[in-house]
Write a structure and sequence with these properties.
Elements lengths: L2 E3 L7 E7 L3 E3 L4 E9 L8 E2 L7 E16 L2 E14 L3 E5 L3 E6 L8 E7 L2 E6 L15 E8 L6 E2 L3 E11 L17 E5 L3 E4 L7 E12 L3 E5 L2 E7 L4 E7 L2 E6 L3 H14 L11 H46 L2 H10 L3 H19 L4 H4 L4 H15 L9 H33 L3
Parallel strand pairs: 3-11, 13-21
Antiparallel strand pairs: 1-2, 1-10, 2-4, 4-7, 5-9, 6-7, 8-11, 9-10, 12-14, 14-17, 15-17, 16-17, 18-21, 19-20
Helix pairs in contact: 1-2, 3-4, 6-7
């Protein structure tokens, strides 16, 4: 631990930066505490330089706390504040020297003098995600939880119903944007449609906390007994250096047959009951005509109800097909890429980029934005600046969004061409092995 003292005459003041750890894993929070010392007292609040750390998101907690400390048996008044740093790539992380301006009187005087103090720089080693960990669902947190809520009674279901499930993942000690989508498996009784996740920032005065809310809509298409698989949440606790797991238990459901068709048959029976059997011998000509008219009216009524039912059923089926197609399209990589290109502000484009990447990586095995931008220094620099602007409270650097979109589009085309070339090579090798 080193420090740089003030050069003002007779002013005994200095500032020190101290890291909570010498090495961390990717996304593991690092606490950097800044302590400002003076042998007298402070006459003005601290003015702190804007901070940016390459390769990390920084959350500032600049509310100062006062204390009295002794250095070499000498008494000092102190002000402390801190940052929580979240590195997002491995390697060496440099926390730069920080300039702080304040006022403090020289010893033996009472009038404050303006002084500029500078902290020591800090270097920390950022280690990669462990090989035995799931890199696609990597979460570092002090504690985490997962809960599920259903939109209706799961014991009273029938074919054609839509069952909505809301899964909430909470984490303490990390950013809500670091929480990945729950590992929800496909089901064999219908389709699953997902909505855009919601991120809730729940930070307090001492730590960063948050939650992610995902909504899934199950369209029930088959009758019978089925099981919705369990959902597992895994996270790494850095304070005890171990993994933890929590699960949402598997759920058994019974999907009943839809009674709409049975209801139509019942309606036919009710209408037929309105048509009593009357002997023609007891009817006059007028009564026979009225009876025939009544039968004809009932027949037309039944035919009309059946036709209306068929039309409604056809329209509903068409709507279901259109809904599926729309859901499939809105869940596709092409749709989300268009969403990225349509954004005109930094925060929406970064949020949409992550959503697009969730669909893009399943096709091209690109798991992170860093991996996606490899080989394009301009794109990598623009994405790094975009992340800093979104997650740091410090002064932001303006980005040329048109240039960013153009770089993303070009890099996407390159990856697609590489994937196509790789696929063609595989097909060519198979054809050589199995000639026709």
């Amino acid at each position: 631990m080193s420090c740089i003292a003030s050069q003002a005459q007779n002013v005994n003041a200095f500032a020190v930066a101290k890291s909570s750890r010498q090495s961390v894993l990717i996304e593991q929070p690092l606490k950097v505490t800044i302590t400002v010392y003076t042998s007298t007292w402070f006459t003005q609040p601290l003015q702190i330089e804007n901070l940016q750390v390459e390769g990390a998101f920084v959350q500032s907690f600049k509310q100062t706390q006062s204390a009295i400390k002794y250095v070499d048996k000498k008494k000092y008044a102190c002000l402390e504040f801190y940052y929580i740093v979240f590195p997002y790539r491995d390697g060496e992380l440099s926390f730069p020297a920080l300039s702080i301006i304040t006022e403090t009187p020289p010893e033996g005087d009472f009038k404050g003098k303006l002084v500029t103090l500078k902290t020591n720089a800090i270097k920390v080693i950022v280690k990669p995600i462990p090989k035995d960990a799931d890199s696609q669902h990597w979460l570092v947190a002090n504690n985490a939880s997962i809960s599920s809520k259903w939109s209706r009674d799961i014991h009273q279901l029938k074919v054609g119903d839509v069952l909505e499930r809301t899964i909430t993942t909470s984490a303490h000690g990390t950013l809500p944007s670091f929480i990945d989508e729950p590992m929800v498996e496909d089901v064999d009784f219908g389709n699953i449609y997902t909505s855009e996740p919601k991120y809730i920032d729940e930070r307090d005065s001492k730590s960063v906390n948050g939650k992610r809310i995902d909504t899934y809509s199950y369209l029930l298409e088959r009758e019978g007994e089925f099981t919705i698989p369990e959902v597992e949440l895994t996270w790494y606790n850095p304070y005890v250096s171990r993994f933890y797991r929590k699960k949402l238990a598997a759920v058994s459901i019974n999907i009943n047959k839809n009674a709409e068709l049975a209801g139509l048959v019942s309606l036919k029976d009710s209408l037929n009951a309105l048509n009593p059997i009357i002997s023609k011998e007891t009817l006059s000509n007028k009564e026979e005509a009225n009876h025939e008219n009544w039968i004809l009216l009932v027949k037309f009524l039944i035919i009309g109800i059946i036709a209306l039912y068929v039309v409604i059923k056809t329209i509903l089926n068409i709507l279901v097909v259109l809904k599926r197609r729309r859901a499939k399209y809105t869940n596709s990589e092409v749709f989300w890429f268009k969403q990225v290109m349509q954004q005109s502000k930094e925060k929406p484009i970064l949020r949409t980029l992550y959503q697009w990447l969730d669909h893009y990586k399943s096709n091209y095995k690109i798991n992170t934005l860093n991996t996606f931008s490899q080989g394009d220094e301009t794109l990598n620099s623009l994405l790094t600046t975009l992340k800093k602007n979104a997650y740091s409270e410090e002064a932001s650097q303006k980005i040329d969004l048109n240039k960013l979109k153009s770089s993303i589009k070009k890099q996407r085309t390159n990856h697609m061409q590489e994937a196509e070339q790789s696929s063609n090579k595989i097909l060519s090798s198979i054809k050589d092995i199995n000639p026709r």
